[in-house]
Design goal:
The complex is a heterodimer of chains A (112) and B (109).
Chain A lengths: L3 E4 L2 E4 L5 E7 L5 E7 L5 E9 L2 E4 L6 E7 L2 E6 L8 E8 L6 E3 L3 E5 L1
Parallel strand pairs in A: 2-11
Antiparallel strand pairs in A: 1-3, 3-8, 4-5, 4-9, 5-6, 7-8, 9-10, 9-11
Chain B lengths: L1 E4 L3 E5 L4 E9 L5 E6 L6 E6 L3 E5 L2 E6 L4 E6 L8 E8 L5 E3 L3 E6 L1
Parallel strand pairs in B: 2-11
Antiparallel strand pairs in B: 1-3, 3-8, 4-5, 4-9, 6-7, 7-8, 9-10, 9-11
């Protein structure tokens, strides 16, 4: 296992409030990712990072921003949460011959 | 972009063999992953194919045909614990992959 933790694990918030989710890894992996997963859907990439301060958008990046100031931490911020952002958010890291991904336990976010 | 198709659901019997198919249409291709995800848990890596052919790993095997844009995951000697979702993912670039919606496999006694 890649030693990936996510915090918080569960959060309930109200529409219009800012929310920050944290991903922390202990394996010094280069790549880090944020995905969301909704019922009946696979994982959709929000943003990813290929190094400290190096990030790029995924397919569903609107309404989200990220920051990576240290190798071990990757933050996902919802600037102004909306009900459509209710989802399970997974962080992942990537390293190795194939750059297979290792996933954190997930954060369940509910926006009321 | 990528278009990845998998069956939504499959059912099989304990002890049997099941094949889960994945087809893809891509603008770029650098390999294909299979992940397993049990309900309420995080996905875990199963296999990776970059060349055509079959990769075997215990009870699980994965096949790739790049010319056909096709892969399958073969599960042998099914066990109840194999009930899970199986996600096909195409590696677009060194760091980025796109996932299919997953196939939910139910194994019945």
């Amino acid at each position: 296992d890649a030693g990936i933790t996510q915090s918080p694990r569960h959060k309930v918030t109200e529409t219009g409030t800012p929310v920050t989710l944290r991903c922390h890894q202990t394996e010094n992996h280069r790549y880090m990712y944020w995905y969301r997963q909704d019922p009946g859907h696979g994982l959709r990439l929000i943003h990813y990072s290929y190094g400290v301060k190096d990030t790029d958008k995924g397919e569903v990046s609107d309404g989200y921003s990220v920051s990576r100031s240290k190798t071990e931490d990757f933050l996902l911020t919802l600037e102004s949460a909306t009900s459509s952002q209710t989802s399970v958010y997974f962080c992942a890291t990537g390293q190795g011959e194939y750059n297979e991904q290792f996933f954190g336990p997930g954060t369940r976010l509910t926006v009321l | 972009g990528q278009n990845i198709d998998q069956p939504t659901e499959m059912t099989a019997t304990e002890g049997a063999i099941v094949q889960i198919n994945c087809t893809y249409q891509t603008s770029g291709f650098n390999g294909l992953f299979w992940y397993q995800q049990h309900a309420g848990e995080a996905p875990t890596f199963l296999s990776y194919n970059v060349l055509d052919g079959l990769e075997e790993k215990g009870r699980f095997s994965s096949f790739l045909s790049r010319s056909k844009g096709y892969s399958y995951l073969l599960l042998k000697e099914l066990q109840m614990k194999d009930s899970a979702s199986y996600l096909c993912a195409v590696r677009e670039s060194a760091g980025k992959s796109t996932f299919g919606d997953g196939t939910t496999l139910t194994v019945k006694p």
